[in-house]
Amino acid sequence: MLRELRRRWRSYRYRFVPWLALNLRRQRRTLRYVPESSQDKIIADEDVFETLLKIFKALFINDFSRQAEILALLPEVKCQYLELLTVEQKRSKVNSCNHQSQHVFSPEEVLFNTLGFAVSRDRSSLVSAGTGVFVTKGFVPKGTVVSMYPGTVYRKHEPIFFQSLGNPFIFRCIDGVLIDGNDKGLSRSVYRSCSRRDQLGPFQMSDESWLTATLQNPLAVGQYVNNCSHEKTANVCYQEFDVPGHFPVELKQYLPNIVYSHDIESHLRCVVLVTLRDIKQGEELFSNYYTVVS
What we know:
InterPro entries: SET_dom, SET_dom_sf, SETD9. This is SET domain containing 9. It comes from Taeniopygia guttata. It is a single chain. This protein is α/β, with parallel strands linked by helices. It has one domain: SET domain (Beta-clip-like, Beta Complex). The chain is built from 8 helices and 14 strands. It is globular.
């Protein structure tokens, strides 16, 4: 029991404000200093947008047979995807006249085929750290979106007290917005409720699969990236990204975030993890839990 409590504390302490205040000086190597919110960008928002668009389109085409209801309501979009599917089928040497015969890849394979790498959860290389995230295949260049931080998005004034109790997966954005990336308990129930509330007919506005072991969006593992240490320096960094209003509605089913309050007119906040250096196959991802805004 004591061992389990120690394990939970090692994971939770980075979210515990009094502990942070006492340990800031001795943990300077793991701090991330942000002079201004506007400078908190490793890569441009346009690059984040294009990366998400690229992988989400590939996932959509890979799962084309399941998209019939959506495409029936979007005839112009259907024509565009049929053209993309034909190109993909020719490249894969599949009969372009029979869409049902297309080979369906796993989401991890789609990620590798599209961006040149795959990531997944596994036991961390850090002692007592629990689960971590690894590059399991391929190579990730510096300045690449390598994962996303899933969860329910809360504004400053919104209730999150009960969800936050003993929860090491609360991510705080620079402007005070909180993202609850816990895939269990009350947090799980809240996310599912909000996701189903926002669904419009066949159009899903968010991805629920990150709550399960079978991911629809293979990037949605960012909440399991462990904090860096003196031995394991950070190789990825958090970057906030507001999903623009013109984001394709048919691709929102892959966004692993949902707003808590339905009546708020604002862009959906997402957080992506961007590589700070080249990362090779087999390496574990490490981030900075501390962000100091000066």
